[in-house]
Amino acid sequence: MEAVVRDVRSLHDSGKHLDGLFVLGTRGELPGGGYQAARDLVDTLMLECMDHAPEAVPVVLAAPGLGDRRMGGAGRRTLVRRALTDMWEGYAGDFWRGDLDEEVAQPLRTDVFGGFERWQSRIRQPGSWVHTGVLVGDAASSIDLESQHIGLVTVNTVFRMVAEDAPVTLAGCYDEQLNRAVGTDFSAWAEDKALVVLLAGHTCILPDVSDISTPVLALAGEGEAGGGWQVMSRAPGQVHRTLRVDFRDQGLEVADVEAGRPVPLLSRGSSASVNLFHPVLEGEMGWPAGVVTRQGPSSLAW
User: Fold this and answer.
1) Assessment of whether the complete model's pTM goes beyond 0.85
2) Domain locations in the chain?
3) Distance from the Cα of residue 69 to its chain's centroid
């Protein structure tokens, strides 16, 4: 925790303003760690931010990862397990319409992800989310940085992995899931944004967003990089990554500053110019968190 606090204090000392804190997967209810460690870190960082700028409290967003699943219980019920795994294609439409709320969605909220939901409710500030979706961890928010309107969407990509031996191929994010998370058609919601940041605890195959003119940056706590995802590294000693995003009339360019190579996006668009600084703040218990901070006019920092 000390290293994370030092990073945030360094940001404040350099005149930057923290606008958001992202926790992308935790270690759940492990004794001596997990949610308690995550909450301690969030509380500590929030106090640092309030001491620095009491009029501007950062938004806190969290997305569940593999460690946030409570195994057993509802996950062992035949309907819940089969509806989310081998029979998903047949049940998906009913699930997103809410026809399986009592049988499947509710057990996910209260049992499989019950611990995550209780922890999340304790760190959530009033008004931080514009809308919440069907699943625990599906939500939308936004921040205004100077002239830029940035959309933030968290998604639960591990909700189908209800069994201990569930393959990572069950991780997923779906068109209707995004629509429900933002409360309307996702493409329409993204239209007035300079950038949309998609946050998840684990990577997955994403829906096709090629028809969206707004650029989409996808960040995940763990999983395989690629397919549009940027995965927060857990390499020992690595506490930040620096990304530069330039919005130009001719298109969008994103680069990893230290590596000197481009970063793939899910779509491309055009707008003004911003820069991203992406510190990867890793807790002692092995779960990642990201921070968003203001650098100055027309710039952002993650």
Assistant:
1) no
2) 2-233+277-286
3) 16
